[in-house]
Amino acid sequence: MPKAVDPNVPSGLVVVDKSPGMTSHDVVSRVRRLAGTRKVGHAGTLDPMATGVLVVGVNKATRLLTFLVGQDKTYEATIRLGETTSTEDAEGEILLRRYVAAVTRPDLDAAVERLRGDIQQIPSAVSAIKVDGKRAYQRVRDGEDVQLKARPVTIKRFDILEVRRPEGGRTMDVDVVVECTSGTYIRALARDLGEALGVGGHLTALRRTRVGSFGLDTARTLDQLAEEFAMVDLATSARNLFPARELSAEETAELGYGRRIEPSVGQELTAAFSPEGELISLVENVNGKAKPALVFAAN
Hints:
Elements: E1 12-18, H1 24-35, E2 40-43, E3 51-58, H2 65-69, E4 73-81, E5 83-85, E6 94-97, H3 105-114, E7 117-121, E8 130-131, E9 134-135, H4 136-141, E10 151-164, E11 172-180, H5 186-196, E12 201-211, E13 214-215, H6 222-227, E14 232-233, H7 234-241, E15 244-246, H8 249-256, E16 270-273, E17 279-286, E18 289-295
Parallel strand pairs: 3-12, 15-16
Antiparallel strand pairs: 1-3, 1-14, 2-3, 4-11, 4-12, 5-6, 7-10, 8-9, 10-11, 12-13, 16-17, 17-18
């Protein structure tokens, strides 16, 4: 049964700067206590080792999270070349070490270039993707050999920021920035870069800097939120995600009851606002009329 919205708690999005060592569920639990409501969810899981932007919805704003999950994302990461791990990140066991002395900067640049654009990526076997109803990472933990299918993703930006050769040059650390479509696994990108160079690789650090229009500039740590709880209100959140349509009083009443109105100018999903600036509904054009896809206003 869905959790009831607490009418005494405002609705909105909380942009959290997640600390390392926490799960996304840990963040949701903490926000529930800070907001004073059970109706809280998040958009786009971050692994415990990762830090950065995790967008959390409170009360009615949880209904916007589905649309946030599909937004493009930006990351800063460190890839260690020369070591392959069981989890494709620093939390796993090192399975194989290979020397990177022969890898030149032109080799690295060429390998990165081949991973830009539209690619087919095999997700990490320890991802949360469900295989026959069971998470892939749980199947790995149970000793199963998990083989996931490649899926199309777009790497819009994959830029090298700095290259270091620690440990006497036995490994190579590559700091990168990645902008990508939803569903991209940065640890898989690290794996594929290492394999393209013939030396293996894994992720040692990951920080998400942006989800759609929400970035670190508006993010707050949980400690900061405990001192001063801040949300992006429901109407502003919707304006950040969708084209806006200003309604008349009559249109506001019609949409509030789930009825259709005259079509919107564009064909995309549109946020419709009352004359007072309240988010009434998300609407879409169907058969020459604007139909409510989600109604937010209380009847």
